[in-house]
Structure formats: C-alpha cells, structure tokens
Amino acid sequence: MPLLNSSREVIRLVVMMYVKYPLSLRNVEDLLAERGIDICHETVRFWWNRFGPMFAAGIRQKRVRPMRAFTHWKWHLDEIYVKINGQMYYLWRAVDHEGEVLESFASKTRDKPAALKVMKKLMKRHGGAKVVTTDGLRSYRAAMKELGNAEKQEIGRWANNRCENPHLPFRRRERAMLRFRQMKSRQKFSSVHAAFHNHFNQDRHLINRETSKTQRSAALAEWQSLMA
Prior knowledge:
Blueprint: H1 2-5, H2 8-20, H3 25-34, H4 41-67, E1 72-84, E2 87-96, E3 101-107, H5 112-126, E4 129-134, H6 138-147, E5 153-155, H7 161-164, H8 167-176, H9 183-200, H10 209-226
Parallel strand pairs: 1-4, 4-5
Antiparallel strand pairs: 1-2, 2-3
Helix pairs in contact: 2-4, 3-4, 4-9, 5-6
C-alpha cells in the first residue's frame, strides 16, 4: 500500500501526532500500525522535517495576518536554560496576554545582541505592543533602549507568569524526544511546536466540555483545510 501510506491524509496525521503529542518516532509508528498503516519510524522523522515547517508556516500566516491589524496590549518575554550535548543554551519565548506563543528563538548567549535579535524578529512579524513584560535580566533593558521603547517595559515578581506556563508543553515534548543534539534542530522544532500548540490549544480548564468539543472540531476542520 505505498500510495495509501504516502497520501496527503496520512502525512498530515503523522506530522500532527508527532508534533502535537509527546510521542516518540516509534510510538507514532506503533499507533499507525494499529490503524493498518505500515510506515517506518524514519519515515516519521523525514515527514516532520520536510512538512512540519510548511504546515507551521501556513498556521502562522493565517493567525498573524489579523493580529497585525491592531496594536497588542501586552507581550511577555522570558528565556529558559536548555542543554544540547551537555552544553548550556537558551530558548527565548515571547507570548501575548492570552498565552499564545508569538516567537521562539534559540541562542548560545543571554546578552543584549540575543535579546535584540528576538525583539526585532518579534516586532517585524507582529508589529508593536503597549506593554512588554520581562524579568529582571538587564539585556532586555539594554535592547529596548536601543529600539527606543524602554518606557514600555514592565518588571514584576509574578508579572511574567504568563510566559512561564507556555514553556511546560514544550518541556514535556522535549523529554519524550530525549532532548536535542543540535541547536538547529531545537530551533526548528520549537518554532514548529509553537505554531501547532497555538492552533490546537483550547484552554480546556477554562471552558466546559461542550464548548471544548466545538472548538476542537473547528480546529481540526481548519487544520484539514489549511493542509488540503
């Protein structure tokens, strides 16, 4: 069944299962085998590498276009430590006031040039914000002074919890993948994962079951139309 196994529907299902859920390559292979689809785990790796960024770009384009039409109320910026082959790196994250991941960027340093690069990418893609909430890292202040929006910075002890929480789904996903071996791979997957998380995340703890089911069906229908 080579044609069936490489159809659009199967590729779409494989990429969604691997990126959205904390599954390993072989977990996806086993789940598909139960459905009668026989593919190798290396095929799963190839498909997510080949089609994952394309799917994420389609999701991002559809979501970013209406967001640029108005000034955002608040952005939250934060960075976390990550290990790649025993070396320490940093993963920068920017989210809006509703917890949607706007930007994800990996770097070797946590200094002003890295913070400046993150903010420039963020502003180029999403426009501007009235308030930018950060932690006490001085690199943010230095970068924002250079950009001319230092007066928008907000620093508080618990003010940045909104950005701390979006790290958790990616951390769970990272453990399932047994971490990363290259910074390039981490950057690529974190960017793809952020787009998928934004699209499928329904905040189930804030809504009832019927609303959750409706929103889940709408997200799946939109996903199928995006990737048709």
